[in-house]
Design brief:
Arc Repressor Mutant, subunit A, alpha+beta, 10 strands, 244 residues, Jelly Rolls, 4-stranded antiparallel β-sheet, 2 domains
Length: 244
Amino acid sequence: MTQARQQTAAKAPQSGKRSAVFQALDADVFNQAWAENAALTPRSAQALHSVGVLRNWTDGQVVLSRGQPTSTALLLVTGRLRVSVTTPEGEEQLLRWMLPGEISGLSSVFAETTYPADLVSVGQTQVLHIERTRLIDLISCDPVVAVDLLRILGLRINQLLDTLADQGMNSLEQRVWAALERIAKFNSVKVADGLMLRVSQSDLAQAASASRQRVNQQLRHFQQQGLIRLGYRNIVLLRNAPKS
């Protein structure tokens, strides 16, 4: 985990103070940087399109299930995919959303093992399916694509460590705020007074590993502090919130 990430976790809002990272946030640069880092380069995407097969998925369809054997990597072309796991108690825990340009399933394909999460279509999606043999053939003759896929795998490892660190926070306040900042990276749009996160409170509760009722109480506390504004299936992180 980077030093900046550790500082973010340590500075979760307390007594009306907001994260130092978000104070200096430029929403356009933030989202653009995330998209550029999390997605494959146009060259790599084009190369994968030449060896993959496009499939259309409807809202709620399960693209892959946790524990399912797979020999196919998935490149999201349009729409969103919901990535989650189910706890031993039967509760769904939201991990993240996949956005267009992102690829998933690389670790399972390369290691020839099962998929580690549930992958569900959100709305209409179009996914490029790349079979293992064709993927191996491609990276064997194109080192640029191979290096780009290694970069994506490295980002996934860092993201996993960040998620584990968020879940290890003892304070509900810290966990909820960390989940908000994590979601802001890949599922938000710029609005006049900050960033609007397109997330329901149920999804946020899953991401923060807490009950919806407790998360709702914490969100209302953040709103009273002037840190956020609650809307219908969205939460706005306010740009002019009180500073540390």
